């Protein structure tokens, strides 16, 4: 397993590295630690600055390597100067997983994502783990959001291949995004009696969506069958991002897993609104996996 850990020496980066090593499969972990120092392109002292900033990056790498060396098979350090987000995204393609902290040194506040983390999760094509605090004393509680897409299936496969699921509890969650919610008709729908609901076009559609949801969660369960994890399922209705975040908070999960969908071409690789909102607001670590290239 090849893991890239991005660090700037911040508390969030250190936390992300510790979280990753606690959650990932302990077998054959080879880690490269990447520290990107900011570039200084102008002025007569550019070369002197570059030597000093690279020396500082090397010290950060050395501290990080010392902290994680006992938990990995092999660890190497990479120090470069340039745009942090661009370099991390470029390196990520060569690894099974890239680990980043939610916030970097320049980011303020206690929630959300820092500018580097935001750009990495938006543009990296390989799996990314945003490492946050682990809540469980033992084992791991995982919430996997599944929607039947190729990206969602890839996320479940990545979870089963890279993470330590021997004593994990996994909840597979599918949210039915009912169309009348967007039309503001949910209150009217709730006033129907049971017979009216079943006979209505909305009721027929709801039954079809429920059947589809059951197939989706069963497919995800089948992908996890080779693991020794305890797997449960839940099907809910509403706004997917809101329902998933609510469950992540109330269920005290350690890891939220989802397929990252959105615009993807040679110039753009943006997350969809659901993926972005969850990555930004999740109370726990988030594993984002994109659809495999065709």
Q: If you had to describe this structure to a student in words, what would you say it looks like?
A:
The protein has 294 residues and is α/β, with parallel strands linked by helices. It has 2 domains: 133 residues, Rossmann fold; 160 residues, HUPs (Rossmann fold, 3-Layer(aba) Sandwich), CATH 3.40.50.620. The protein is built from 11 helices and 10 strands. It is elongated.
* Residue windows where pLDDT falls under 50 for at least 5 positions: 265-269
- What percentage of amino acids are in beta strands? 15-25%
Query: Termini, distance in Å?
Result: 23 Å
Rg measurement, Å: 21 Å
Looking at the overall shape, the CATH architecture of the largest domain is 3-Layer(aba) Sandwich
What percent of the residues sit in helical stretches (DSSP H or I)? 40-55%
According to CATH, what is the class of the largest domain?
Answer: Alpha Beta
Structural class: alpha/beta
Order of helices and strands: EHEHEHEHEEHEHHHHEHEHE
Shape: elongated
Number of domains: 2
Q: Please work out how many helical segments DSSP would assign.
A: 11
Q: Sheet bearing the most strands, described?
A: 10 strands, mixed
Rounded mean pLDDT score: 85
- Spatially, the strands of the biggest sheet line up as 3-2-1-4-5-10-9-6-7-8
- As for the CATH topology of the largest domain, it is Rossmann fold
Number of strand elements:
10
CATH superfamily of the largest domain: HUPs
